[in-house]
């Protein structure tokens, strides 16, 4: 169905349709970014050494260091962004898998909700409660459920 001659064909469309394929693709991109990040870290160290050693005649001892700070900060920001992107890729793969699971559970949840609505609309008839007079007589004989106050003792004595 997907033809490379089709103008609307996109190889990432197939990847997007499967959470497993999406996770594999994002892991590959993450590996590349981590490799780039390692190279950028090495480059940042080399630039730092070079910029801090670049002295001009008449410089005080900290002038080269001050001139190097904006360059070092720029590399630090780039490295921080690369790390944020790699974390975002992991999170995206997780969210894609969670979406598929939520999609699979949606039909079951809807069925349960519909059954609950039906139960609320048509409740099961309850069994008739036992006769109160019979319950009271049994309670009196068992010694429980009698008077609630010492003034209601009647023939009985208090402790």
Radius of gyration: 38 Å
Q: Provide the low-confidence segments as ranges.
A: none
Specify the biggest β-sheet. Answer: none
Describe the global form. Answer: elongated
Overall helicity: over 70%
Q: What's the mean pLDDT score?
A: 84
Order of secondary-structure elements: HHHH
- N- and C-termini, Cα separation: 91 Å
Number of helices: 4
Number of strands: 0
Instruction: Estimate the strand proportion.
Output: under 5%
Structural description of this entry:
This protein is mainly alpha-helical and 159 residues long. It is 70% helix and 0% strand. It has helices at 11-17, 19-53, 63-121, 132-142. Helix 2 (19-53) packs antiparallel against helix 3 (63-121).
Chain-wise SSE layout:
Blueprint: H1 11-17, H2 19-53, H3 63-121, H4 132-142
Helix pairs in contact: 1-2, 2-3
Descriptive key words:
159 residues; mainly alpha; elongated
In short:
This protein has 159 residues and is an all-alpha fold. It has helices at 11-17, 19-53, 63-121, 132-142.
């Amino acid at each position: 169905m997907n033809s490379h001659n089709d103008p609307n064909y996109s190889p990432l469309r197939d990847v997007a349709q499967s959470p497993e394929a999406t996770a594999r693709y994002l892991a590959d991109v993450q590996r590349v970014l981590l490799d780039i990040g390692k190279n950028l870290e090495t480059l940042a160290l080399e630039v730092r050494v070079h910029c801090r050693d670049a002295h001009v005649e008449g410089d005080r001892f900290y002038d080269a260091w001050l001139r190097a700070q904006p360059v070092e900060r720029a590399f630090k920001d780039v490295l921080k962004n690369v790390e944020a992107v790699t974390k975002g890729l992991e999170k995206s793969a997780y969210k894609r898998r969670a979406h598929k699971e939520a999609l699979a559970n949606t039909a079951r949840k809807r069925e349960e909700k519909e059954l609950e609505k039906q139960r609320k609309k048509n409740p099961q008839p309850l069994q008739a409660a036992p006769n109160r007079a019979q319950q009271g007589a049994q309670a009196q004989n068992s010694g429980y459920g009698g008077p609630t106050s010492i003034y209601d003792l009647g023939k009985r004595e208090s402790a």
